[in-house]
Amino acid sequence: MAGGADSFRALLRAANALLLKRRYHAALAVIKGFRNGAVYGAKIRAPHALVMTFLFKSGSVREKLKSIAQATYAHSRNLAYFVFTYKGLLAAQSQLQGKKVPFHSFLAACIGGWLVFGDNNPINSQIIMYLLSRILFGLSRLAVEKGYIPQPKQDPFPLVAALVWGTVLWLFEYHKETLQPSLQSSMTYLYEDSEVWHDLSDFLIYNKRTDSK
């Protein structure tokens, strides 16, 4: 028993020593990136899928749990593959050129995005839209920081908020099919289902009646 414990401790020391070797850092960073992508994807998707599925999807509990598991796995897998691909390509370019330059990040991410997130499905679509909104904000701030556009005299956020909400509700009312399905479901619940009721039960307690009255 003691011999087994000693062997395990020796193996652990060897593994820790390997992890600290500088020459293996790039390769090990790729592996840890894969691990972090998988964990982060699961943490982000699982609660979101749980809420959206039980709020808006019909079907048995088993079907809903299966849908949640599939969405969580897809998000976790894709993010893990992307981080692995991105960091691997980044390390390869840096090794070939002898140094890291900004274009390496752009090129590695473009290739990773094409390979991993190029399939047009609900999960990838949500991730891309999430990133797109933050890119627009980031590029706007960068343009001000670099002096390409003048610093606004007043906070432009209220105007942005007004235009975003005005546009999305116009699309929902008149071109609903252009919006992403989960957004359609959310807006249907908020703006269309609130127009329909039969008595106090589905006015205050439930969104829709489940009986045939």
Automatic annotation (TrEMBL):
GO terms for cellular component: peroxisomal membrane. Transmembrane segments: none annotated. InterPro entries: Pmp4. This is PXMP4 protein.
